[in-house]
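To fix ideas, we give here one paired sequence and structure record:
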Amino acid sequence: MNGNRISGLIPQEIGKLSNLRVLALADNALTGTISDTIGGLRNMTGLDVSGNNLSSEIPPMLVANLTQLAFLDLSQNELHESIPESFGTMRNIVILDLSYNQFTGMIPKQVLSLSSLTLFLNLSHNIFSGPIPSEVGRLTSLGILDLSNNRLSGEIPQALSQCQAMEYLFLQGNQLVGMIPQSLSSLKGLEYLDMSQNNLSGSVPDFLSTLQYLRYLNLSYNQFDGPVPAIGVFNDSRNFFAAGNRVCGGVSELQLPKCSVTDNSATESAACAE
């Protein structure tokens, strides 16, 4: 029933559809809360109520009971409070989208421990705070991770290097600090990386130029300094962005200032320290 003009509440009686496998109510005008009677549909493998005006919190028992879910999309609503720890019971989940809500608190370790997530985890455009938990390293088979536009702080965890299947990584619009970990050089299949609008610092890592499949890189509006490499993704001025930093060099199309001898020496010293 996606994409209609259905309004009002999700009926309690929907919980009587005991053999229902997929419920799709996306892009309507539903209001109120997510009916906890949906938690009785234990055979359900897909639930999509995105693009509505649902509010309140996620009923913990709804998630705890739907252990067969492979696809869950609650995005683009007005859901708030913290994410229930009962998400840890969803051992068959492949796609999880909670973006564009008002969730608060830290990202639950239970969500980042769902090793079944292989396609997509989207927690963007919420109000999550605190550091990115090291449990993110358990998402070893995940292809797309989007944590952008929250209030995440601290350094980028070394554990991200364990996400060997990662192709798209979105961390922009947070309050992350420190350097880009050298360990991320192990993400050999990375195609798209956005770390813009943070407080990251240090030199732009050379290893990013060696990632064979990296075709988009946005480091804009951080505190990076020193020379920019001129090979790999850095050679594509249409897909590499570094505005709002104190960087220099690079290909001429970037129109960055020329590097001084001091800039080059500082970068060489940093490389030796690593």
In short: The radius of gyration is 21 Å. The mean pLDDT is 92. Residues 70 and 93 are 4 Å apart (CA to CA). The helical segments are 60-65, 109-112, 261-273.
